[in-house]
# Entry
Amino acid sequence: MAGEEAASKGVVHRALTAVGVYGLASGVRGYVDTTIRWCWIPNWLPSWCPTSQKDLQAAETRMLRCVSCSFTRHFIPVSNGCQLWTLACGGAGSRGKTPLVLLHGFGGGVGLWVQNLDALSRGRPVFAVDLLGFGQSSRPHFSKDPRRAEDQFVEAVEQWRAKVGLESMILLGHNLGGYLAVSYSIRHPGRVKHVILVEPWGFPERPDSSEADRPVPVWIKALGAVFSPFNPLAGLRLVGPLGPSLVQTFRPDLRRKFTSMFTDNTVSEYIYHLNVQTPSGEAAFKSMRGEYGWAKRPMLQRIHRLRPDVPLTVVYGSRSSIDCDAGGALKELRPYSHVEIMTIRGAGHYVFADQPEDFNQRVSQVCETVD
# Structure
């Protein structure tokens, strides 16, 4: 019986080989592998995507042309030969006040604070930083381990603080920047006088899909499985020369947020050049997030490690799709600490751009309580 079974398998194997099934399967595997490598390895970017470091610099300069306050931009060296691109502003009247440090969200850069710099720097020094792996900052290789990748972000901020010479600061973070602001404050609480979280990412735990009121549809799970090997912005690189027009077509809201300053494609061009460079911080973010965008290391699980005397202010937009329950959870988990939740009416996820006047006023009021 065993001999007949082996002979039968041999016949099937020869038949499949004859019709090219194995060759087809090998070819498909090779194609998928090559495609994934293209989305991860940026060697082909200069000839395919219409971008460069100079293009990004020029786009940022165009974004900042409407800023009235005096400012400087320069690289601050950190470890391993890396540098953090930094914008600093604030007049003589702001001396002696606690500096405000702005950390952008995923895919952002210092230019997106263009509607906030003038107002926020009237009362104190303001520093806007391109996170390691984003914007014009160095784009090193990050660990694929979520804990170590987070450490790389946080330690770069600490080394930056020491090089700039700040004894303490008010730390404001949007989206991913909010997550990293709390991570930094847990490790270096003596350097932070107040943490302002603007639509923060990565705080709640992923809900149990079996208990959720709205279970995830099968087609979304399938899409998640297909695209999980790719970096989040790989598609923007993959379309090459079509990228700038796609940003304008599919994200017209980004342009509308800055209509008080720009009537052309300045914002869309800046967003494009920010996000088609070497995927460094982007790859780190991919390592830190799990399925459907939930953090692999939810911050609410560690918030008890944040010193009770570090105040928290959480800012949400009333029209945002981000779940604001994390703010309430912070209040419950820190009953003996200052936790304030603010909601800005008419604002979406990009609160600081949607309602800049209200945002600037609220943040300035929080900062005044520090001094």
Q: What stands out?
A: The beta strands are 71-77, 83-89, 100-103, 126-129, 169-174, 192-198, 312-317, 339-344. Confidence is low (pLDDT under 50) at residues 1-9, 11-46, 218-230. DSSP finds 16 helices and eight strands in the chain. The CA atoms of residues 105 and 176 lie 5 Å apart.
